[in-house]
Amino acid sequence: MSQNLTCPEIINHARYPIDELQHSRRREVIEQVRAGLEDDGCAVIRDFFSAAGLSALLAEADERKSRTYYSERKQCNVYLNDGNPGFPGDHPLNIFIPRTNGFITADLFGDDTTAHRLYYWEPLKQFLAECLGKKELFIYEDPVSNMIVNVGKPGQQFNWHFDTNEFTITMLLQPAESGGHFEYVPDLRSAQDECYDEVKQVLDGDRSRVKRLDLNAGDLQFFLGRFSLHQVTANSGDTDRLLLIMSFSEKPGMIGSMARVKDLYGKVTEAHAESRVRADKLVD
């Protein structure tokens, strides 16, 4: 049944006619998202999917859960790298915290899947670009990680971290029955400053700047995760938390680094051997 859905049928089109460029509702939603991103780097479009679209996407994720990859690295710093012995042991670079979530990788979603068709739907990409205030977005060419599902089984968590990309587009397919909360600290660092002292305050338990966002199945979230520290708390319920993540870039041909893709997703391709130069000099 899911293969018969057109892209407009996947989304809640009556409420979000994103392929109708002159529709007043489309402009209202874009302005709403931009205001949220300007405020604290986070914005949500509620009930973005139709019931049929959400059902199809969730079914595809459920069918592939047995092939979820769990990293061999169970303790990570917030930069998802190996740390730096040149800094003290209590420096944020050298503070390692549990990470137990897994990922269903992009290569497991064929051209005929609902998720794949939606990801490559040009009106969606154009809409997302306008929401983010970008002239144009390009498909993230990483064949392993451009469109993935984050799996958080009961007891699992994705602790504090920064993202590789400036922005992240996520779509909650199934929330945890309890726990599994998305928390973030807006603008904790900048492209010019790692702000290690502020990062350490959060890692030491300071929650004065922490925000919690309640998400429901079918919500679409925009998040500027390159500069905002964030986490998904432990799933304390009895059902899996499933989050569809779609990545785009401002330049064509961008892919992830070999080391990071191998660590997070367990596989790389020949394309990952090619280096990519970032616009900023952050640790990652």
Classify the fold: give the CATH topology: Jelly Rolls
Spatial separation of the terminal alpha carbons: 41 Å
User: How many discrete structural domains?
Assistant: 1
Strand content: 15-25%
Q: Can you tell me the CATH architecture?
A: Sandwich
What is the assigned CATH homologous superfamily? Answer: q2cbj1_9rhob like domain
Which sequence of strands runs across the widest sheet? 1-11-8-13-6-4
What number is the mean pLDDT? Answer: 94
**Low-pLDDT segments:** none
Highest-level CATH class: Mainly Beta
Major β-sheet profile: 6 strands, antiparallel
| Element string (H = helix, E = strand) | HHEHEEEHHEEEEEHEEEEEH
Please give the count of helices.
7
Radius of gyration: 18 Å
Structural class: alpha+beta
Helix content: 10-25%
Number of E-state strands: 14
Q: Shape from CA axes?
A: globular
List the helices and strands and how they pair.
Layout: H1 7-10, H2 24-40, E1 42-45, H3 51-64, E2 75-76, E3 97-98, E4 102-104, H4 114-119, H5 122-132, E5 138-139, E6 147-152, E7 158-161, E8 168-174, E9 182-185, H6 196-203, E10 211-213, E11 220-223, E12 229-232, E13 241-246, E14 248-249, H7 258-265
Antiparallel strand pairs: 1-11, 2-3, 4-6, 5-14, 6-13, 7-12, 8-11, 8-13, 9-10, 9-12
